[in-house]
Amino acid sequence: MTLSGFSRWALRAFMALGLLFIYVPLMLVLVNSFNGDRTFAWPPHDFTTRWWSAAWANDGARAALLTSVKAGLGATAIALILGTMVAFAVQRFKFFGRDTLSLLIVLPIALPGIVTGIALDSAWRSVIEPLGIGKGLFSVIVGHATFCVVTIYNNVLARLRRTGVSLEDASADLGASPGQTFRYVTFPLIRSALLAGGLLSFALSFDEIIVTTFTAGPGVTTLPIWIFNNLFRPNQAPVVNVVAAILVVLSVLPVWFAQRLAGPDAGASRT
Amino acid sequence: MRHRFFLAALSAGVLVLAGCGGGDSGSTGSGPGGLSVPKIDKLASLGAGEGEVNIVSWAGYVEDGSTDKTVDWVSDFTKETGCKVNNKVAATSDEMVTLMKTGEYDVVSASGDASLRLIYGGDVAPVNTDLIANYKDVFDGLKNKQWNSVDSVAYGIPHGRGANLLMYRTDVVKEAPTSWGAVFDANSPYKGKITAYDSPIYIADAALYLMKTKPELNIKNPYALDDTQFKAATDLLTQQNELIGEYWSDYTKEVQAFKAGNSVLGTTWQIIANLAEADKAPVKAILPTEGATGWSDTWMISAKAKHPNCGYLWMNHIISPKANAAVAEWFGEAPANKLACAQTADKNFCTTFHADDEAYFQNVWYWTTPIARCLDGRTDVTCKDYSAWTQAWTTIKG
Amino acid sequence: MLSAPLLWLVVAYLGALAVLLVSAFWTVNSFTGQVVKQFTVANFRTILTEEVYRNVTLRSLGVAAAVTVICVVLAVPMAFYMAKVASPRSRKWLVIAILTPLWASYLVKAYAWRILLANGGPVDWLLGGPGNGPGYGLFAVILVLSYLWLPYMILPIYAGLERLPDSMLEASADLGARAGRTFRQIVLPILIPSVFAGSIFTFSLSLGDYITVQIVGGKNQLIGNLVYANIGAANNLPFAAAIATVPVVVMVIYLIAVRRSGALEEL
């Protein structure tokens, strides 16, 4: 469709406004991390860097960040494996319940977090705990993986549907073992889909608080939980702003890296 | 092959369901007429520490220096006793109860709106106070109260206390209020800028006001309300809802609202008033003539504690004068240990927080879980329990 | 090879959901707080007959619907610009720009809005003085939730549009279709499943939220708050479960309805 110059201009203006809407609150977070007032009085009267030094010295925040990264990576790893396997199964085989499967996989993310949280909590306690595995970081990882699978599944499935099986058939015909076919043909085909899904999955896990509240064992503090605990205490709230500001800045790195790795067509897409 | 699996999975699901439906039935003999406390033995003697202890606490009660290097009363404890501390911060009393029911935690810092629920639910054990050396220095006004004991059996160690005060903006509220009537006045000029605590337990604030202003209702204890009394309190709150700008539950929100002027009049805690003043907001907090509701937190030990010895060691440590002073100052409440007042960094701390002012706390009705057996001793009526309070609170907020 | 993960998903998760829903038919002994496993519809009777639950449900549905509509209105032009107007180079940066805010904590963003909307805060100031802004309330809840979930709407729409080859749009134009017709007949069929996919996020995340409304909602409560309050009033898990049935039923109906559009595969 050929767009008139005006429509292009209007769309560009809309995009700019949209980005403004998205970034103004984030700017405020950044500004407030220098606000001398503990409860972010507006307009700021005095500026200080003491929150930044306090955040730097805050072991709790660093430990929580590490926990969150572990949880995010763990959940994403599980989701990558499961999501890919299920996507392959759905694409390649016919079996009873196949059509219900996509509904089932969407369910953990589509139901309100509080419902998923309670359900996972009681599932853990009645199914896993009798096996001697108490709640801890692992239960957080499993909980997050449960609702992250869908991002990988959908990305990979869409890719598989688009590419079909002809390339793999060709590879097999040329004498490649299934391992070789996966390594040299299938994996490169789905690589960017895995990255896009993985990125979204990691982001979902990284900022999840409601399900985490119900699945975390004693002593497991993810970053959102740490933020929850500290934001509501005036002594600590400004430090939370600093942490959030750092996160926003740092988050560009993995996203940018993934974009490079996945090639020009990636990002959130699964072309 | 795959569809067989699917069927198997389905039937397994049904099994889980049935399994969950079966177990877990009552440890207590309880009929609608009476209320009995599950029989749980207290620890007879202290053994060696188990190497760790799992704690559920309010934010700021268990600090190991990870928030602020200078705020640390956990490391010394671990060094002395060899008990590693795993802490889980709960946001609300309700969350604490839920967490304690999992049986994964040894010790909890329960407020009075949770403690009775834990006791009657059989989730916590009585405490052998003889094993807690520092217990003798706790203010008498805090020992063996309705929210931490049953029939003179102690179920916990008092940690600290505070009152729910009335705070107002001195530049906006011209006529300084002296009564809770200010927040219930249907013709209040501050309509839309009044705030109240967001919890079913706030119903007691209305009951306390009615107790003093409507003697014909014959309210003896704001946590023991029969049908008529309860209806009067909830009616008052429904009418108050028109005046409310927002309900608050976390104190960053409350300080910020008073600073910005979104709220100009409403309930508060001493620590919030102090913080708002420190940030130069023109506010004042008072204890109204009717008295006030308040809270006193209690350290309790789980009935299923896996680390009871470390749990006892912790309870003794947290009310030791030094730790008790440190936690009281960091959190902003009156300490429970008499000797703590000599250990605070701010020498006026105990005065500001009325720590040793028994007359001040005489007018304070500490949060207590409302239960069906009336706490004021009446036996001819049943009182509204906390579930009913919760549902009523939903209705009040609309 | 599918068994282990599916076992977890089907048996544990669905099993637990089922137990949760079954427990909605139980009650609690008001003296001990123990769950009484005896079938009763009392919880549902309360929810259906007491006005407050109907009001809160309708309010929550209204908020979720409004958030979804706002997100669609904002996301479609933005995603269209990203996928079809921007140069491939800037496209990459725009995707990064949309993804980045997902990493800043949800709570911190909600609190940033609380400051923005405060009495005499930046929004009031922009509109000419204290009290001129919308302040805290339902409007603020809708605004903030739209803000929080917007990226989840943009991403699937962008992905859908990006899959649509430019050549198809050109062909349509070459064959004489005006922009409006091309949009209706080429773009819209791609757009609809993507929009539904995004709406699953925005709708369900809004329906389950109980934190944003506490931060900027003034004195309002949504269905998530009711579930949370009753779980906590701990002893009343059955009643909480009964309330939780409402969003679950709504979401399942919604999912089944949009499944036909292929939306579930666009997430």
TrEMBL record, chain A:
Family the entry assigns: Belongs to the binding-protein-dependent transport system permease family. CysTW subfamily.
Protein name as annotated: Spermidine/putrescine ABC transporter permease
InterPro entries, sorted: Bact_Polyamine_Transport, MetI-like, MetI-like_sf
Membrane topology value: Multi-pass membrane protein
Superkingdom field: Bacteria
Domain ABC transmembrane type-1 span(s) in chain numbering: 65-258
Pfam families: BPD_transp_1
Keyword set includes Cell membrane: yes
Transmembrane segments: 12-34, 71-89, 101-120, 132-153, 184-203, 209-227, 239-257
Subcellular localization(s) per the UniProt record: Cell membrane
UniProt keyword terms in alphabetical order: Cell membrane, Membrane, Transmembrane, Transmembrane helix, Transport
Keyword Transmembrane in annotation: yes
UniProt source species: Paractinoplanes durhamensis
UniProtKB/TrEMBL annotation, chain B:
InterPro entries in the cross-refs: SBP
Coiled coil residues, start to end: none
Signal peptide: 1-18
UniProt-recorded name of the protein: Spermidine/putrescine ABC transporter substrate-binding protein
Gene3D superfamilies found in the cross-reference section: Periplasmic binding protein-like II
Superkingdom of the organism of origin: Bacteria
Alphabetized UniProt keyword annotations: Signal
Organism, scientific name: Paractinoplanes durhamensis
